[in-house]
């Protein structure tokens, strides 16, 4: 799959933008702050329903505008699909697929991307929420319906937390909160599926992760992934505890002769009820889980060098791309490298360029063209202050998109 055309209206610093792309590598060049990352961010949003830089959609809408619109024509095997997304300041976001109304969560069925960015260093060195977001973004692309499950889980979690906070303020005891059992049942039903899906994903990532790391570093540092589950006693979000000291499991463990995920989740909520009432927050569930990253048997977060941390993060993204490539009916995902080469030494630049060279489409952003290895620098788009200059275009396609701008 590749992005054939991209159209933006009131997205970030773009009043309008129209671009045509081809398979292969394209470099988007511009000084920092000009808007080159905004272009690739919009493509990534269609695939993951989120930004790799901000958590709120409001930041994606141009100042003074009520909505932002992203349109992309995706091509594969001689067929094209038009995806359109409208992000609204007020009210729900809207989407269309080939001019027919759709739900935004339907878009990842068609758009598959893997994005590398400087922020990816936080996958290794940052908080558990970063690693959860990485896994969930990949899950949504592989199993789009999970976007709905995740949204439902967040709604139930919010309601349950509100009830806990209200009970704490009123001084209610656990026995007086019979309505909490209803929310527990719904939370467990949704959360257990998310936990199991994450465990399966971590298991599937292990082999391609090891291969991708070797391709970048040319050494075997034994990169490993180890899930850390709050329902089994870990509390990754509590800085006073060591996530690696307990609560670790694997997909095989979950299938072994022990209670299932839902049963363990329900038991954890029962055991934690008193503490939850004291703190007014839900203390177990996929929203508090983590995945421990190991190199040579040691936690990468505390022991890996800067170069090793970068290599681990890149290897995770390459492994994600490999999984999408394996099970997608639309071919390769679009690879996006956002200011990545500036962070790498010459050897790692060359090895990364070789590792991604066979993907159908690679979009690269760079402040300086010289940072990009020569084999990837054949086509160049210049960005200046939210304007596309010197870009390859498809005038006929642009006119069509512009004429249909009111369709979403």
TrEMBL record:
Subcellular compartments: Cytoplasm
Record carries keyword Lipid biosynthesis: no
InterPro entries: DNA-binding_RecF, DNA-binding_RecF_CS, P-loop_NTPase, RecF/RecN/SMC_N, RecF_2
Domain RecF/RecN/SMC N-terminal: residue ranges: 3-366
Protein residues bound to ATP: 30-37
Metal-binding in keyword set: no
Low complexity: compositionally biased ranges: 242-254
Keywords: ATP-binding, Cytoplasm, DNA damage, DNA repair, DNA replication, DNA-binding, Nucleotide-binding, SOS response
Ranges for region Disordered: 228-256
Matching NCBIfam families: recf
Entry function: The RecF protein is involved in DNA metabolism; it is required for DNA replication and normal SOS inducibility. RecF binds preferentially to single-stranded, linear DNA. It also seems to bind ATP.
Record family assignment: Belongs to the RecF family.
Protein name: DNA replication and repair protein RecF
Organism: Agromyces indicus
